[in-house]
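Handout, section B. The chain below has 239 residues.
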Amino acid sequence: MATYSTTQDNRTKLGLIALQADRTIEDDFRRLMPRDVSLLVSRVPSGVDVTLDSLAQMETALSGAAALFPVGHMFDVVGYGCTSGTAQIGADVIADHVQAGAATRMVSEPVSALIAACDALSVTRLALLSPYVASVSDRLRAVLDAKGIQTPTFASFHEGNEAAVAQIDAGSISAATIDMMADADVQAVFLSCTNLRTLDVIAPLQDHLGIPVLSSNLVLAWHLLRQGGIDVETPRDLL
């Protein structure tokens, strides 16, 4: 019988729970994450349409999705990849469910990541571009406001279908952001939703607008790395 030796993996170990309907976040994370980071991905059942009810229903499946990671694997941080879902379910509730299913020191999601990014950038007034229907957008804005982040400048595509969100093209995202920013008095822009394809528009929009442009996947990737002990000062340093 052949013999073998074992090795110890000393890399930062990150986990990501992506929505079943999300077609964007994994590709974005491959672009944003350093090569020397371990990233494992699980999926959680999610609705075809984005409503407050469909978002709330994900809560019951989170522990099961976290339990699908390899048994015995100890994570530094596990992220839940849904901005609107976090706003509806609550960051603390999500952390409890994820840690019930997976061994991880910390849990993050796009809302806590955005709040941390705004703190790092000294941002309290944020322009928000949303793909969501009004009730879902309103819930996110209320959660941010409760954390001291105002969203006085706002626009939305009012799209309720997850698959359609992933098909919104870069030109539409850029045009909607620039239109929204006419006469805006804000310190940064947030492009919300992990399924929205934003990475290719962030740098050009920053150059055009002269202020930071953030997105759900950008801030979540940054926050996971920071919590995992990797020194990345601001989300823009990942681009």
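Note. The chain has a mean pLDDT of 96. Compare this with the example in section A.
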